[in-house]
Amino acid sequence: MENIFLNRIPSIPDHISSYDPFPDLTGCLADIPIPLRDRLVSDGEKYLQASYEPISATDYMDFVRTGDRAAFEKKYFGRRYQLCALITAGLVQGMDTFIDDIINGIYFICEESSWVLPAHNTYIRDTPQLILPDTKRPVLDLFACESAALLAMTYHLLKDELNRVSCVIADRIEDEINKRIIKPYLEDHFWWMGNGDEPMCNWTPWCTQNVLLAAFLLPNDEAVRRKVIEKAAYSLDCFLKDYGDDGCCDEGAQYYRHAGLCMFHCIDILNAVTSGAFGDIWDIPKIKNIASYIVNVRAGGGYYVNFSDCSAKAGSMGVREFLFGKACRLSSLMDAAAEDLYEDLYGGGDIFASDSMRMNLYFRILTVCKAESVLRYHEDNRDMATNVPGDIFYPSVGLMVARSPRFVLAVKAGDNNDNHNHNDTGSFTLYLDGRPLFVDIGVETYSRKTFSPDRYDIWTMQSGYHNLPTLAGLDQMAGDRYRATDVDCHLEGGKKSMSMHMEKAYPLPDKLSSSAYYIRNVALDTATETVTVTDTSDCPDVILNFITYEALEATAKPGVYRIGNALISPVGADIMSTETLPINDDRLRLAWDHDLCRIRLRMTASEFVMQIRPAT
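User: That's the sequence. What structure does it adopt?
Assistant: Structure tokens below.
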């Protein structure tokens, strides 16, 4: 493990300061762009004198009893959305109108028996959850740490206002955070903190970021702060060890916000409280590559190249991405983030669409304080913006993204052991003129089954619901042994392609596994605007599955079909069936505005070729 963070511990000065992320908050509040000000005030006013949802013990127990996590989380997150909105509106418009509702929110959260979600209420990774939390032994999960950061920001921003009502409010916040978060963080070990070679995921920087906020926004002593820094540095090194030098997020664009982007905030906070001891991290190529990832997987029209649990609508960029780009001196990321922020504020977007922007007060105030300067940057640089990404291959994950003036093609090799994995080795997605054509469905609303041994019983996880074949009646299986081999990617010139053997991704019987082959080549010809999928195989009974945004339609020309604004001509297979895939789930509906389609073809020759061209 490369100790990027731990190696900088000796450079930490004797004095570790507290963290003041918004030293010019008053001036920032005076310069908020009008659309942002109006949105913040309206969001807060709708919660005036509104009750906070009660949460009962049976609400908590329902996850273990029924597997449903959405009902509890709606109430739990709703309280935090409400408090964030009230505080932000109060800062913008004046606190007198909002302070009582804010105090109610503080007390509702402080009086929760636990801040850990029912779905995360366990002390050992990947073990069954306990039906109720143990108040004597807090679990530090994503949202226990989020709750601490929310209350710590509330303390930092409103301590004087709260003390005018009663000094016990701020004291209560300190006590609860120290008891529930700081003490167990320093004394216990939770899996996301890292342990040698144990694989980490977005939990590590996400939790660490919020613990750092909690520790450094409160008046903790020097010894506590130093211990927090040392533990955070080890965790962040454990997180980085699972990234390739290419910076690819194997969880996808949606999780970049909780992985690479939260790591950015960790570095920023550590740097601020140690007088710059971590400042040279920005120049490390791996860190720059992690930052750039989100630009490289944009597909246009608000869509991203997606795989695993990631949604095709992974959310727009904004102030946080801009600041990451600025720290790493990446103009492409700064340009793209500034453009997205402008479109959200002035083009009908929703700057607070993500749960993080609704629940994390630090992110909200960061947006308030930096939005004006980011918009000025956009105005000054929009005519020379460099946010159009090029082609890229990420060997650590086996992901190729290739572009032409009209197409964005992504092909994924790798294996079936990614974080938030779907069995999708060899699948591809394709966008035409910023609209989805061949798609990756994503994941439904999380339930108990989502992260359980029954995960691959869920249809969206299965290879048969990706742009993949079924071989001899078998779909792919999970695990790093199920992988692509002989991967070859070419991105030079006008013909870009990726080829691979895929037979090892399937649990083929012994009589086939030693000799059977399945080779896929996906190519984009930029001169002719043609995508060609070529599959060659000697496996028996090959059924090809394709998931499309629009339904398949016949044309007047035999063997040529229309999907949306594209024409496809499959050769070497007969169409077996087309079926509608209903999009009824709330999480899926965030990405897809109508039902999807699955097309199934049976291969009739050893080679299948499908050409895809724009219809107009």
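The chain has two domains: 6-384, 392-614.
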